[in-house]
Amino acid sequence: MQTRTVKLTERLNTFIEGAVASGRYLDDGDVVREALRLLALREWEDGTAPASAPVPAGATASRKAA
After folding, report:
1. How far apart are CA 10 and CA 48, in angstroms?
2. Where is this region: Disordered (predicted)?
3. If DSSP states are collapsed to H, E and C, what string results for the chain?
């Protein structure tokens, strides 16, 4: 798995810390991966993902035309 460094606002950092502290996620990376998975799914479903994008986990086979 690759490592990537990102800069977060204090609000996003607090959100991530809260999600981990709640026990729903094991670590910061789990929160970020879930957020990116949901973003990919939303873009797939609303048709804004590139045509070459793979079908994200949880997506149905149908999607809106871009």
Report:
1. 28
2. 47-66
3. CCCCCCCCCHHHHHHHHHHHHCCCCCCHHHHHHHHHHHHHHHHHHHCCCCCCCCCCCCCCCCCCCC
Nearest to 44 by CA among 36, 54, 32, 34: 54
Gap between the Cα atoms of 43 and 64, Å rounded: 10
pTM, rounded to two decimals: 0.79
CA atoms within a 13 Å half-sphere pointing along the CA-CB vector of 20: 14
